[in-house]
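Escalated from tier 1: farnesyl diphosphate holo job.
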Amino acid sequence: MNQLSPSTVPAHVAIIMDGNGRWANARGLPRAMGHRKGVEAVREAVKTAAECGVSYLTLFAFSSENWNRPESEVSDLMGLLKTFIRRDLAVLHKQNVRIRVIGDRANLASDILPLLLEAEETTRGNSGITLVIAFNYGSRDEIARTVRKLAEEVAAGRLDPSQLTSERISASLDTADIPDPDLVIRTSGEERLSNFLLWQAAYAELMFVPEYWPDFTRDTFRTALARYAARERRFGGLQPAATLAVGS
Ligand code: FPP
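Tier 2 regenerated the structure:
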């Protein structure tokens, strides 16, 4: 299970890190402790993805819907993200990690946006794994912002509606220049996409694992990658044997 062939490692893995609260509840701890343990799992996941040869790792850190949580929890999550960038940026930079942030940047607190921009700017030239942090992200919101942007281009006469191809739309989303995810993992046993990368995950393999996010270890991650390697992706085509039969 521990040998992964480079040819079957997904280029882009995206993860819905779910179950921090339940992890804490199960131990009689406050939810904030679950999120704190979750940050440790984030560090381990970045290291594991890099060591396995994954090129892009996208983590759903804060959704546009998470603002509906109690103020104290929102503030805990913001604090953790800020601390993560302040404490880990130098280490990630040294590990040659490139950071990208996706999500709506409008109206972000004045102590968050500069940190996100600094993380992107500092690591822009790195050539190792790209860590994509989905922050204040929701897929429908991303698509709506993109549609508005493109509609403005059309209204200004800079874009003809015939140029609105799926490639053009992909290239206008927050994830422009990032390949579509090959594998989307959700932890905690829930089986939903929850407004995460809806456009980009059109052909992704979906994997739902029972572990709560704080328990998502190097071994759990490697097992998921091994399970992915055994899947057959057809992208709407036929499986190889059927293709042969049709062709012969
Ligand atoms: C889901 O657990 C997790 C989140 C809403 C946030 C994930 C955030 C982190 C792991 C920490 C910050 C991230 C980075 C990149 C430093 P939940 O609270 O929905 O758990 P529950 O469903 O069990 O209540």
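Residues 243-248 have pLDDT under 50 and may be disordered.
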